[in-house]
Amino acid sequence: xxxxxxxxxxxxxxxxxxxxxxxLEDQGQLTITVDKPKSFEDEIDKLAAILPDxxxxxxxxxxxxxxxxxxxxxxxxxxxxxxLRILASEGKAKDVPIFLCSxxxxxxxxxxxxxxxxxxxxxxxxxxxxxxxxxxKICSIVEGYDQITKGTKDFSALLQRDYNxxxxxxxxxxxxxxxxxxxxxxRIIFKEVIQEPGLLINEEILAARLGIxxxxxxxxxxxxxxxxxAGYDGIFESGWxxxxxxxxxxxxxxxxxxxxxxxxxxxxxxxxxAKFNLENIVPxxxxxxxxxxxxxxxCQATGNPIDTFEGYKIDKKKEPRPWQEYSYVxxxxxxxxxxxxxxxxxxxxxxxxxxxxxxxx
Length: 361
Hints:
- By secondary structure, the protein is α/β, with parallel strands linked by helices.
- The chain is 37% helix and 11% strand.
């Protein structure tokens, strides 16, 4: 029996939509009900009435296909999502996660340039990239909504850490709200904490901070076990593996009796080898055009570890929150145009430095 029922709204023909439904239902965790969009007003009324029967809604980006009576629907998913969020905030519709499911071409053409629309959707996935991981992430977000609904303002329970130990600005806007909207609490935790490096780090950044080339290290799983106590186990954890950055640093220092940031990759690996009697962990190497192995993050273009002092800050169209870190790209990725191919752009504050360093090569 499936865990969650989702409504999937798409204007494409059945022969194109049904394979998407089948992929999403493949693991037996989801039941997908497919529907065609109606005129905007009729669609809003219908959704407000039937959403209590669903755990979430999946929207195709462009809902502008012909209806059965020959008339044309002329709106896109952001408009519909915006109205659903308003109704949920007013208590006139069930507050459910809204997923955007589209083709990469459509997303590149419009949605990626419309930053005001991004926060309307909990998560975006591509129709041609649906996998077991996609399904797990959808379920994780639905489960997160359920947990928030049961205790909207119990931040310590949601994060599984004493909220008083963290930056109080993270969720401060909800302190004085009696019943903050579930989707707003979910958005802040997921998009401002889970998805952005700072309080939490992902597995690639964890490996960089430990100085380890995890792809070449057969004992990487043993290292993960050693740092299990630093792992994040709050909401959305089942879809996104994360570690508390401060706990990783503290745990390493308790093992090695050295500050993580003061050591290079080889020194960090040697300390871990000595502590856990491991041989099959390999120090990560610096990228071409880089010298330091005092790694702290990864190059967003290549995935390789870099020292933030050698990396270049990326322009993500908004400045990091106080509890977040910048994302970086390497000089190598810039010179080889790997960053350009992935549409990664330099932060304006890095223009002059890049001009100087690239000219010196």
